[in-house]
Amino acid sequence: MTINFIIYIIITILLGLLIRIFYMIYLNHKIKPRIKYTTVKTFIILGSGGHTTEMLKIVEKLDNTKYTPRIYIHGETDKISVEKLHEKEKNNKDWKIIPIFRSREVGQSYLTSIVTTLIAFRDAFYILFAENPDLILCNGPGTGVPLCLGSFLMQLLFINKSKVIFIESFCRVKTFSLTGKILYHFVDHVIVQWPNLCTNNDKHCIMTNKTPLTSIEIPWNILLQVCNEQLPLEIKAHLIPMCNTLQTHLISNGKIESIDVDDLLLIAEACLDRTWEELNTGHWKNVPIEQRHCYTVCSILKCITLEIKIGKVERVNEELTVKEIITQIDKGLLLGAPLDEAPNILTEMASRLNEHIRNQENIAEVLDFDVDCVSKELLPGFKWLKRFDSPSMESFYRDIFMPKCPVVLTGCIKHWKALKTWKDPNYLIKIAGSRTVPIELGSRYTEEDWSQCLTTFSEFIRSHVIKTDGQIGYLAQHQLFDQIPELKADFSVPEYCNFSDNENETYPDINAWFGPKGTVSPLHYDPKNNLLCQVFGCKQIILYHPDDQLCLYPYDTKLLSNTAEVDPLNPKYDKFPEFKKATGYMCYLHPGEMLYIPPKWWHYVVSLTPSFSISFWWS
């Protein structure tokens, strides 16, 4: 009876402790009432190196008269932090340093670290009991784990009521550090610098809202130089003061009143509208590069101003504003031109913002491509192209490149990640769904009803690739991977592009060709070598030798001089009688295959299924 009673008591105590633990964790995730202190006795936990540097920057923002006395806790083998502290607090009298046994030294085995961790917990309990702090600040070093967990256990036993704040390192962008993962549920507040770490609406996880996404490392000196040297006087007069205002605001972390932000946005919009008029006057190729640089600068300044405004509107508008920023960035990339000394400003802005949007966007529907290839018969009057399986560099150069023979190459890009991931439209939408891209509307660019428009990548997939009952839309010959470099990680430039027809080595022009079944590229030629790589879907391709040019009836207009009037699948022999003399070659391009098209070889391309191809053009 006595033993049963003892067991009952033990179980009751353990159950009570368990309930108490879950209750405390529950409270940690709720909004807590403010407690007024005249002064706050503050524990500041230091690590070595970067953790100490970040923590000392945080301490700089603390009011010396309120957060006092300050007690710094450091690993007893960490001498560097001690040196930094003496320099930092040389004018402050109400502070001290307390060493603590380190849980684990760098390189120490996990087995022996069990003993050292127990010793560290012993030191932590002693320090907490002796000092009884009001506040404990920790930003990630392992030294903080025994102290923060020790404080939680002491609160569990009603011994003290210290508030513990864990501040995740600025370097942790996507995932918490190991210390953060351990302490997340056992501290009162978690402060993060990046939105990806605080997306679950947890009340005790707080984002600083101070992390700039568009204005990180903006080269203001270059922007001002471009404004001074390249922009028209009427634009320059507005943008130079705007640059100075934004730079001052960002450097000082000051606040611009909403009326000032609205004024700055009005200036940016007016300059963009004026530059837009210049860009759309005459032929695009004749637009001065200075005008395109002007559009780029206007886009940069508008995006920075919009981000400043985000903090002044309700959260429901934040996503809309971020998407507006991304849209303007894409317009800047499509219509502007890279600044000579800072070519990647807009691209880097978009990558950071796209990461923010990507992790917040919820794609509800599941989209599936129908990529079953149709019959692949040789059409009457045509010859098959030769096929090579993974030719060596020497073989490609000798048998294909030098004689300029069009061939199908198999087994050369089977390592591409894109072959697997891009078949899933949800993957493409996740990576690039919010980005604005140019779309061709109509079956082919030689038709009278052909036009172009701008739309988001996700809307293009939903409206033109998945749905096939409306007007055909084609993302054709677009440098998508310069605009969205995240997609570049899924493929690589084929090594065959290293061969050149001249001594000038140039990086290939990489274009995307993405659309539904039925898209057509009319019979035409390109002046460069071309490797057309099929990521998914199936295409039928017809080719003619450059010597057959007169039989193909090129348009006599300068704009379409590289395009044939004749349709090789439905030729009108009464109108184009010489076409009968041309020798046609054909192939079906399957996923994972490449087609080498030599310069000036005429080719006609039709998508038999939804299709994504990448072309590499080089001299």
Describe what this molecule looks like in 3D.
The chain is α/β, with parallel strands linked by helices and 619 residues long. It has 3 domains: 31-105 and 118-207, Rossmann fold (3-Layer(aba) Sandwich), CATH 3.40.50; 220-360, no CATH class; 382-618, Cupin (Jelly Rolls, Sandwich), CATH 2.60.120.650. It is 38% helix and 18% strand. The protein is built from 18 helices and 21 strands. The chain has helices spanning 2-28, 50-60, 79-88, 110-131, 144-156, 178-183, 220-230, 233-252, 258-279, 289-310, 318-335, 345-360, 393-401, 418-421, 425-432, 457-466, 480-483, 549-552; strands spanning 42-45, 70-75, 95-100, 135-138, 163-167, 189-192, 205-207, 382-384, 386-389, 407-410, 436-441, 451-456, 473-478, 509-515, 520-524, 529-536, 539-544, 584-589, 594-597, 602-607, 611-618. Strand 5 (163-167), helix 6 and strand 6 form a beta-alpha-beta unit. Helix 10 runs antiparallel to helix 11 (318-335) and helix 11 runs antiparallel to helix 12. The radius of gyration is 32 Å and the shape is elongated. The termini are far apart. The model has no long low-confidence stretch (mean pLDDT 85).
